[in-house]
Design a protein that fits this description.
Number of helices: 4
Helix content: 10-25%
Distance between the termini: 88 Å
Strand order of the largest sheet: 6-5-4-3-2-1-13-12-11-10-9-8-7
Structural class: alpha+beta
Shape: globular
Largest sheet: 13 strands, antiparallel
Order of helices and strands: HEEEEEEHHEEEEEEEH
Radius of gyration: 21 Å
């Protein structure tokens, strides 16, 4: 009769293997989120866009010019208002962790404190953090795949949809207790954002706000979503919509494009 020996595996080895397996499982999710979050930016980018704000108290429309530089870990962003005349010349710039506002009416530059990251940008439903990208979803959150399924997207064809739960890391400087991220991959495994639901607390069932991406178009040789819409479920009928009119990738930019002189 054959005899068998029981193989004893040290607990530390099992924990190590489990940790490596968990890291391997989460790696594609992190890469997809990073790709989806930067699909409209590239290493550098220049864009002309419109912003439409609809609130109960008022409606506004802005024309904006946006420059980005994501070649370093800490990105640079410049948003300059082109119109209407009342707001022309207002600008916001982010360099490393410093965010500044420029008001042309008094030629004053104001440095934003971290407590202002969650404030609405120029009366819109987008926050300063949304547009300046101080929070990095791919770096400040952990990920859990909730659902995946085959689907179709107009302009692309067959895709694979993924729903991912993002939970903030213990020491991450973030405002949301949970984010549910919907994205999809095309046949070349390129990731596109579809919808983000932001929750104040991890246990909340109702999202505090929803950001959706739509209107896929070819811009500068790349298919991208050209419309972003932010909704607040608690405020029906209100929204802010950003529409990309022109977009160029890998433009030539330097530190001077994000200095105080560029604000003026």
């Amino acid at each position: 009769m054959a005899t068998y020996r029981t193989l004893t595996v040290p607990l530390t080895l099992l924990l190590s293997l489990a940790a490596h397996a968990s890291a391997a499982d989460s790696l594609p999710l992190q890469q997809w989120i990073k790709q989806a979050e930067t699909i409209l930016r590239g290493d550098t980018s220049a864009a002309i866009m419109s912003m439409k704000i609809k609130k109960e108290a008022y409606q506004r429309e802005y024309d904006l010019m946006v420059l980005t530089d994501d070649r370093a870990e800490s990105s640079k962003v410049l948003i300059k208002m082109l119109g209407p005349a009342l707001w022309r010349g207002n600008a916001t710039v982010k360099v490393d962790d410093k965010i500044s506002f420029y008001d042309p009416r008094n030629s004053r530059v104001t440095v934003m404190g971290s407590s202002m990251l969650g404030d609405n940008w120029m009366g819109s439903h987008f926050s300063n953090d949304d547009l300046m990208r101080e929070t990095d979803l791919s770096r400040h959150y952990d990920y859990q795949l909730l659902q995946q399924q085959a689907g179709q997207e107009e302009g692309i064809g067959a895709v694979r949809h993924y729903t991912i739960k993002l939970s903030p890391k213990p020491t991450a400087p973030v405002a949301w207790g949970k984010v549910v991220y919907q994205l999809y991959l095309d046949g070349q495994q390129r990731a596109y954002p579809k919808q983000l639901d932001y929750f104040q607390r991890a246990e909340d069932a109702q999202a505090a706000r929803t950001l959706s991406y739509s209107a896929l178009k070819a811009m500068d040789g790349k298919t991208v979503p050209t419309r972003m819409t932010m909704l607040l479920p608690a405020k029906r009928g209100e929204f802010t919509e950003i529409e990309y009119r022109k977009l160029k990738f890998n433009v030539k930019v330097s530190a001077e494009n994000f200095g105080e002189r560029a604000l003026q």
